UniProtKB/TrEMBL annotation:
It comes from Sphingobium cupriresistens LL01. InterPro entries: Beta-lactam/transpept-like (IPR012338), Beta-lactam_cat (IPR045155), Beta-lactam_class-A (IPR000871). This is beta-lactamase. Its EC number is 3.5.2.6. The lineage of its organism: Bacteria, Pseudomonadati, Pseudomonadota, Alphaproteobacteria, Sphingomonadales. Belongs to the class-A beta-lactamase family.
C-alpha cells in the first residue's frame, strides 16, 4: 500500500497550521482604496456623460466647506455665453458695497443698448428706467440680454468686470464684450453702425446660413475657438467660491445675489433636472449655438454646499443632449458629496 496519501495529508495539515502572514503583507489599509474608487467612479461618470456630446465638455465641482475639487477638463477654456452674467452681477454688487451704486438706483434704458428679445421693447419708450435691483433680477433669472447690457455699462464696461474678477485672485475668466457684441461675434459679423436689430437682420439676409445655424442650433467653430469671453470650469468655481465665502461681497450683497440666482427661470432641465425635488439650487445658465452651460451652488440635505460648473461647446447634438449632460453631472456630484466615504483631511484635488 502506497504512503503517498498520508504524506500529502500531513503536508496539507502543515500548511493549515502554519502562521498566517502579517497584516502588512496584504498591502495598505482599505479605506484609501475605497476613497480612490469613489473619486474614480465620479470622474468615470463625468467622462461617460461627456461622450453624449460630439463637442467638448468641461465639468468642475467643489465642496465649499473643504475645498475638495473634482474636474474633467477643468483647465480648458469654454465660451461662457450668458454664464458671464454672474461676473457682471458681482461687479455691480461690489459697487453697491463701495457706496458707488444703489440697488434702488434707476438706470435709463438707452435705445443704443437694445438687442433682441426680453425687454427690448421698453427701450423705445422715452425716459424709461428700471432699478438696478430689477435689472439684476431680469439678467440672472430670465437671462435678459437688454437688462444685462444696461448693467454692463453701469459696471464700467467689460474691462472693469474682468478687473473685478482678477482682483479676487480668479484667473482663467475674462469678459471682453457686452451681450450685443458677444452675439455679433457669435454670428460672425462686424457692424460699424446701426441698431442691433438692423445689423442682425442685414447679416441674416446676406448669409442665409446664419438662419440655418440658429434653427439647427449648430456651433460656430471659429467663435468657439476664440479666447474672448471665456472661462475654465476651475475659474468659474473660484468665482462662485469667492462669492459664497463672503470674501468678494458684503453679507447683504452675497445674500441678495444668491437669492436672485435661486429663482433662476432658465435651464429647468440642467443642474436642477435630476436632483431630488426641493433641492435648493442657485444657478445661472448660458446658451448659444452649440453651447450650453450652467453654473451655481447646490445645497445638500445636511446643509453642506457644493459649487458646480458645467460647460458644453462645439456640440451639434442639440440642447436636449447638452441639458442631459449637465443634469447627469449635477446628480453624480450630489450623490458623491452626500454619500462617498469621508475624504482624508477633506482635501483631494483632481483636474
Amino acid at each position: 500500500m502506497s504512503l503517498a496519501r498520508p504524506v500529502s495529508l500531513f503536508a496539507a495539515f502543515g500548511l493549515f497550521l502554519a502562521p498566517l502572514p502579517g497584516a502588512d503583507a496584504f498591502g495598505p489599509p482599505p479605506k484609501p482604496l475605497v476613497q480612490q474608487s469613489a473619486e474614480a467612479k465620479l470622474l468615470g461618470e463625468f467622462a461617460r456623460f461627456a461622450a453624449l456630446s460630439d463637442g467638448s465638455v468641461g465639468i468642475g465641482v467643489r465642496d465649499l466647506q473643504t475645498g475638495e475639487t473634482q474636474a474633467l477638463n477643468g483647465d480648458t477654456l469654454f465660451p461662457m455665453a450668458s454664464a458671464y452674467k454672474i461676473a457682471v452681477a458681482g461687479r455691480i454688487f461690489a459697487l453697491v458695497d463701495a457706496g458707488q451704486a444703489r440697488l434702488d438706483e434707476q438706470l435709463a434704458l438707452d435705445p443704443a443698448l437694445a438687442s433682441e428679445g426680453g425687454i427690448a421693447w421698453m427701450f423705445s419708450r422715452p425716459g424709461a428706467t428700471l432699478s438696478i435691483d430689477r435689472l439684476l433680477e431680469l439678467m440672472l433669472q430670465k437671462s435678459d440680454n437688454n437688462a444685462t447690457d444696461v448693467l454692463v455699462a453701469r459696471a464700467g464696461g467689460p474691462q472693469a468686470i474682468t478687473g473685478f474678477v482678477n482682483k479676487l485672485g480668479v484667473t482663467g475668466l475674462r469678459v471682453d464684450s457686452d451681450t450685443a457684441h458677444l452675439l455679433y461675434r457669435a454670428m460672425g459679423i462686424h457692424p460699424l453702425a446701426g441698431s442691433f436689430r438692423q445689423n442682425a437682420d442685414a447679416a441674416r439676409r446676406a448669409d442665409p446660413q446664419l438662419v440655418t445655424r440658429d434653427i439647427r442650433d449648430l456651433p460656430n467653430m471659429a467663435f468657439a475657438a476664440e479666447l474672448q469671453d471665456t472661462s475654465t470650469p476651475a475659474a468659474m468655481l473660484d468665482l462662485i467660491a469667492a462669492y459664497e465665502s463672503g470674501r468678494a461681497l458684503s453679507a447683504a450683497s452675497t445674500q441678495r445675489l444668491f437669492t436672485i440666482m435661486a429663482n433662476c427661470e432658465t435651464g429647468k432641465k440642467r443642474i436642477v433636472g435630476m436632483l431630488p425635488p426641493g433641492t435648493a439650487v442657485a444657478h445661472k445658465t448660458g446658451s448659444l449655438n452649440g453651447t450650453g452651460n450652467d453654473v451655481g451652488v447646490v445645497r445638500l440635505p445636511d446643509g453642506r454646499r457644493f459649487a458646480i460648473a458645467v460647460f458644453v461647446m462645439k456640440d451639434s447634438k442639440g440642447h436636449v443632449a447638452r441639458d442631459r449632460i449637465i443634469a447627469e453631472a449635477a446628480r453624480a456630484a450630489y450623490d458623491y458629496f452626500l454619500y462617498a466615504p469621508d475624504r482624508a483631511h477633506g482635501l483631494a484635488h483632481k483636474t
